[in-house]
Amino acid sequence: MTRPKLKITLALLLLSQYVLAQLPALERVEPAFWWVGFKNPKVQLIVHGDKIGASQASLNYAGVKLTAVHKVENTNYLFLDLAISAAARPGKFPITFKQTGKKDLVYNYELKQRNTAQGAQGVTNKDLIYLLMPDRFSNGDPSNDVVKGMLEAGLHRDSMYSRHGGDIQGVINHLDYLKDLGVTAIWMTPEIENNEPHASYHGYAVTDYYKIDPRYGTNELFKSYVAKCHAMGLKVIKDLVHNHIGTESWLIQDIPMKSWVHQWPKYTNSNFRDAAVMDPHGAAADKKQMLDGWFDKRMADLNQNNTYVQNYLTQNHIWWIEYAGIDGLRLDTYPYNDAVYMADWSKKVKAEFPRLSIFGETLVWSVANQAFFTQGNTVNRGFDTQLPGITDAQIKDAIAEALNGKEGWTDGVNRIYNIVAQDFMYQDPTRNTVFLDNHDMSRFYSIVNEDFTKFKSGMAMLLTMRGVPQMYYGDEILLKGYSNPDGLVREDFPGGWEADKKNKFTAEGRDKKENEAFNYIRTLANYRKRTTALQTGKLMQYIPRNGIYTYFRYDDKKTVMIAYNGSEKESALDTDYFSERMAGFNSGTDVITGQKISNIKQLLIPAKTTLIIELSK
Description:
- By secondary structure, this protein is of the alpha/beta class.
- The chain has 18 helices and 28 strands.
- Strands 18-17-16-13-10-9-20-19 form an eight-stranded parallel sheet. A six-stranded antiparallel sheet has the order 21-22-23-28-25-26. It has a four-stranded antiparallel sheet with strand order 1-3-6-5, with helices on one face.
- Strand 17 (357-360), helix 11 (367-372) and strand 18 form a beta-alpha-beta unit.
- The protein is globular, with a radius of gyration of 27 Å.
- The relative contact order is 0.09.
């Protein structure tokens, strides 16, 4: 009696498995949810699943209309255009996918209410940015060091290219340290998933745009991190990569269409020559290779002329800003992007978040080259990029030349004077990010050959120069290293791991010179935090005299004098020449030492030293 029932049961099981095998599988809908209240009522959903392209999509929700369904080369994709009217209310509604002879698939989509709490504040020249690499800063949660199923499973702190285990919780654990240092904004290299088999700890080979890398934490933890920063008066910058995508991304492994990335007959790198983009005499082939060539074999070059790619990237960035409350964006490898798309991207992002700040990475070789990428068409490009600011590599190089070079007509201290004098090329140079080093170049302490006096002078100029100052993690404790190979400048912050023998997050863990460096930066950074003249004040500079470069930052509250002696010996600076800026002032205070200076008619400045004096009447 039991055998027939068994046969029927097995037959039903086999039939159900067959039916399930024939159903399209709905693997992803991105963005997974959206918000009501955006100025742009349109959103394009990317739907991914086995043969989902054969489905007919429909929805029924007040205020939301499905305006178009796009079927593309790969039948595993659908692109759905939704129009969300101002009358739409937050809530959930089903999107149904019908396919002939098969069971309907249903995705419950959600529209959320926009967050009116603190967020998208903007990072400005009032701030000090601290750049860190989450994998190398601090390991706050050892349980996520190795995540099962990810392509790079190992954790090897003794290898510069392996993952070391730092994470978002580690950063959260040291927010007090950063606050004490005088930092007001934190920029992490990309936190989103980089599921590549090797050396993707840096974050620039994205494999999932909507997911924090599980070795760093979760989306919820990242959102909590931003909230904790805001509660402490700190801002958050997110690092975005428009130009390329990790080749292990699901969008590459099952590519929606061939034109999703730039295709070449054989593998072709970018030529990495930004001049090819701006050269009025240049060959089209050079420009094409610059823009469309791949950054690396593991980083496919996204085709930003593809409207589906455009929508996907723009919406993803808006999603993260709204979801987490991010205050500013740093745009990686900016010159390699399609200019028309980037201008459109910027308009759309700024329309939704007017206070949000944006700056692009432009590691190029002249002020004009930098200005070419900034908004306002200031160098006769014939096109407005809509990019507010850039990473000011020319100021970086000029400070290094002033510290290390010998005086000449355009060398030594004259280099920095000449670079600042070219600020007329920018719509607003105070939106540029000024820096001395970062994760792609030699550390500043090594650049000045571990000369502590030069180190302090460079930090003094960084924190008193116009623009938005940015320092690199560990600069404050004299971390060193040269960028060939780049892993040498990406060492772990000592004390960020429980097993570390020294904890340089504390004064007790630092040696005498490290504490002197930390205290020097902390004193100046916190002085800057409460001195509007160094934030939003005007800058007046003078042609260097006798190897001394002098400039002033001033507003109606304070006037601060900065004088750097670039010569190899102590020099006297007669200040009568600066009467235009110093009239009425007869004394001052050394900002670092707090010492009163009763006579400012003549100042003795030791070799390679920068004086910072708050003037008094």
